[in-house]
Amino acid sequence: MIEVLIMILTGIGAIAILLASIGILRMPDLYLRLSVTTKAATLGVGFILVGAAFWFQNVGVTSRVLAIILFTTLTAPVSAQLIARAAYLIKTKMWEHTVIDELDGMYDNATQTLHGIDTPDEVDGSVIEE
């Protein structure tokens, strides 16, 4: 019975990684490629590692698997965000059917800092006392 569970988990993981690799080929620009591969590959690696934890049934292996899943889940989106921000700063071309660029005009090119939308307390540079 445990072998069936392991086959299901690793099969789902392999399919997720396959979809991530197809996404690299099929997505039209860097931003969409990063999005699809980060999500699908992280999910796929997680499922395969959970299958490995069930296979070995050892506390040492299970704790390592959980640590790897935790660190992969935390670091993969952060690294994708940093890659996407660097690509945006060097003006990597977006897909021609992109509808809206929410960051357009919000980056200061000299300091490369992001300026947010004014909140109600910061309108006109003055802070409203509460």
Instruction: Specify Rg, calculated over alpha carbons.
Output: 21 Å
Strand order of the largest sheet: 1-2
Low-confidence stretches: none
Classify the secondary structure makeup into a structural class.
mainly alpha
**Number of E-type strands:** 2
**Main β-sheet, in a few words?**
2 strands, antiparallel
Mean of pLDDT: 86
Describe the global form: elongated
Number of DSSP helices? 3
SSE arrangement, N to C: HHHEE
Q: Into how many domains do the coordinates divide?
A: 1
**Percent of residues in β-strands:** under 5%
Describe this structure in words.
The chain has 130 residues and is mainly alpha-helical. It has one domain (2-119). It contains 3 helices and 2 strands. The protein has helices at 2-26, 30-56, 59-89, and strands at 107-108, 113-114. Strands 1-2 form a two-stranded antiparallel sheet. The longest helix is centred in the middle third of the chain and has 31 residues, at 59-89. The N and C termini lie far apart (63 Å).
Can you give me a brief rundown of this structure?
By secondary structure, this protein is mainly alpha-helical. Helix 1 packs antiparallel against helix 2 and helix 2 packs antiparallel against helix 3.
Task: Considering the chains and any ligands shown, give keywords for the structure.
130 residues; mainly alpha; 2 strands; elongated
